[in-house]
Amino acid sequence: MKMLEIKGGNPLSGTIRISGAKNSVVALIPAAILSSEEVTICNVPDITDTAALCEILEFLNVDVKRATESLVINPSKMEIKEIPSIYTKKLRASYYFMGAMLGKYKKVTMALPGGCSIGARPINLHLKGFEALGATVTNKDNIYTVEAKELKGANIYLDFASVGATINIMLAAVLAKGTTIIDNAAKEPEIVNVATLLNNMGAKIRGAGTSNIEITGVERLGKCFHEVIPDRIEAGTYVILGAAIGNNLKISNIIPEHIEALTSKLEEMGVFLDIGADYIIVSSGKDYKPVNVKTQTYPGFATDLQQPLTPLLTMCNGRSKIEETIYENRFMHIPYLNQMGADIRVKNQTSTIIGPTKLTGTDVVATDLRAGASLVIAGLMASGTTRITNVEHILRGYENIVEKLLGVGANLELKDI
Ligand code: EPZ
Fold it and tell me: Which residue among 29, 117, 130, 162 is best mutated to probe the pocket of ligand 1, counting the most ligand atoms within 8 A of its Cβ?
């Protein structure tokens, strides 16, 4: 097991370059198997989620060549096999192989993880989409079999603008006969990145990024070269860190529009942001005003950023509130922040952060990816030493986080325990 030991209090200066988006690449890798030829994807982050998906590709006899920050995936010799849970349980996003294999072979059998710590995370909307396309779904002890004699385009309304369901239905529909409409589709930038890959392969998808996506089925998908977009959640995490203890901290290789809900909230707090075309420079300020945040689907305030934002709000003069509307259980970082000296109460789906309070280092546990990120920010802000265990959660979604932080003056070390 790994532990991150942080000696807090250093102001952070210099540049952090943002990597490719985890929540895009975890869909692009399964999507690549829809091609009959080689697919090259660049700007691939070196995170454990990427490695876990490449293991599944190799299990399916898909040829994967790794180069610096890129993957060359050749599914021409792919085998149809049941994907066991030793592979699929490593990450939720393994379920994208369901849509991709159904779309290509009209049949898929795979184990899927249950809910993860932040909520039940059912896949009912994914399965509703597959059934609308003509598939039958059976589930025996979390082993799903989804198959269809033929996949035919359909009109599918999503009760909730689910990111995963929108992408998985796209993957299943690109080779179907006829046209599929996804109504109330999710609008996250990662969906546009996946649709662009598929169109580069020869698909006919229109409307990605809006709530109405039209997919016209084609016969075959082929070779292409594609780039992963910058990770807006990684970018937002480091911008928040800069507002906490930055001294002209530059976050580069970003698309500022993708984190507009965050930057406007930070400016409302009184954070000064120098926002360029593909970077943000930020420094810690004082006399921050308290703010209210409500998580929403894109382009609203991202649920993935409410946990990293929480330690920063301990610096505000007064009561801030965060209402979490997407997941049922996304406040597991709060008890640890309170152990560090924060004064945060949680009632129903809203946390109230009373500031300003000083944070002091102590031993804490990362319960999930973004809770872990929140504790890293708190540890860097705090006086004294913070030891974070279960750091594997954090390494799933933040490429080279230790090197990136050391590069801007943080004092931290990753240890095996
Ligand atoms: C994606 O998860 C992201 N993960 C999440 O990021 C992110 O928080 C989420 O989108 C929302 O933006 C990846 O892209 C790999 P959803 P996903 O389907 O697709 C409910 C991180 O920290 N729902 O939009 O699972 C679900 O329970 C992770 O990087 C159903 O009820 O999100 C949840 O409450 C965490 N039925 C809500 O919708 C379904 O069939 C949002 O889910 C599907 C979802």
Answer: 162
Q: Is the shortest distance between the CB of 191 and ligand 1 below 6 Å?
A: no
User: Of ligand 1's atoms, which has the minimum distance to the CA of residue 328?
Assistant: 34
Could you read off the pLDDT of 48-83 as tens digits, one per residue?
999 999 999 999 999 999 988 999 999 999 999 999
Annotated catalytic, 116?
yes
Q: Kindly report the backbone phi and psi dihedral angles of residue 365, in degrees, each rounded to the nearest multiple of 5, phi listed first.
A: -130, 135
Segment 199-209, tens digit of pLDDT? 999 999 999 99
The CATH topology of domain 22-227 is: UDP-n-acetylglucosamine1-carboxyvinyl-transferase; Chain (3.65.10)
Cα(375) to centroid of ligand 1, in Å?
22
**Class in CATH terms, 2-19+230-416:** alpha beta
CATH 3.65.10.10 domain locations along the chain: 2-19+230-416, 22-227
- 110-155, pLDDT tens digit by residue? 998 765 688 888 899 999 999 999 999 999 988 999 999 999 999 9
CB < 8 Å & 24+ apart, contacts of 52-58: 52/87, 52/90, 52/91, 52/94, 53/26, 53/29, 53/91, 53/93, 53/94, 54/29, 55/87, 55/90, 56/30, 56/83, 56/87, 56/88, 56/94, 56/97, 57/29, 57/33
Instruction: For residues 302 and 296, give the distance between their C-alpha atoms in angstroms, rounded to a whole number.
Output: 6
